[in-house]
Amino acid sequence: MATLIPSPPAFDNTLGALLIGFGASAVAYGMFTIQVYTYYRRYPSDKAGYKALVALLWILETADQALIGHCVYYYSITNYMNIAALFGKPVWSIILQMTIGALVGTVVKLCFSMRVWRFSYRNWWLTGILMLLTFGQMGLAITFTIKSFELPGFPDLVNLRVVGSISLGLGVINDMAVAAALCYYLQSMRSSYSNADSMIRTLTIYAVNTGVLTSACSFATLIIFDFMPNNFIFICCYFVLSKLYAISFLATLNTRKIIRGRGTDREHGKTTSFQMVTDSMQRTINIPMQMPMPTIQEDLDYIEEYQKSQTRSQDSTHSSAPHYAIGW
């Protein structure tokens, strides 16, 4: 008996979605590459660890974009007018792309979790929960990858709806939790530092914008995957998701100069940490903390200039105040 082939799919939400996703991800990859170039040019003396991390993200995103290109080429050129390919076993590149995308998200989320750890004065409970969500999502992504290689055809992807939905859901929760935690601790600091309110407001806006952008894309992918698992629209959204995580991380690094006027870290000197608020800012109200963080001594002349531009009537006093260093 001849094998029955399902009715021909609509190319708009299959090959069309792949093509749109490829174009959008290519634009996002270009933006990310420009940010990488800007970072190395603006901070030539940044810590080697941060330089290596940026290089790692760029390599992963390059591999990710190459896999996306192979996937689009396979379905649109290699299998031109071969409708059966859309119902056959998923090509290996589209499966590995999901894994690399999840890996990029994991790296960025771990960095943002450490950012929360610094701003929360080493709150290990909060940081631990964020890291647990991050590693949980990565574990589910690996499970999704292994199961996807075992699928006999693309329509069977619906059987992995639970694993995929939980993984994307954890990503949404993680992004929103990071943004909420940063906003909470930044707002607490507004009452503690008399000369840094405008900078704190700017940092809050950046935290909200980066969290909303990635969580919105993750949530859109989740909804589309749950309600339309038999087309490629959710894949289109996922193509862009990892790029948004990488862009948000590089934007955080590159805007250090804009936020502080001269840069969070010295652009032509060796840096030791990402500091956004330091002991040079006059502390007026004690805020709850779990553990004081010792300050790493370095040249912080830009803080003095910032204070003078904000209030010229204040004298630089309280030199014996306790020292704290808040992370980037």
Automatic annotation (TrEMBL):
InterPro entries in the cross-refs: DUF6534
Protein name according to UniProt: DUF6534 domain-containing protein
Domain DUF6534: 172-257
Organism: Hydnomerulius pinastri MD-312
Biased composition (Polar residues): 309-320
Transmembrane segments: 15-40, 52-76, 91-112, 124-146, 166-186, 206-225, 231-253
Highest taxon, organism lineage: Eukaryota
Stretch list, region Disordered: 309-328
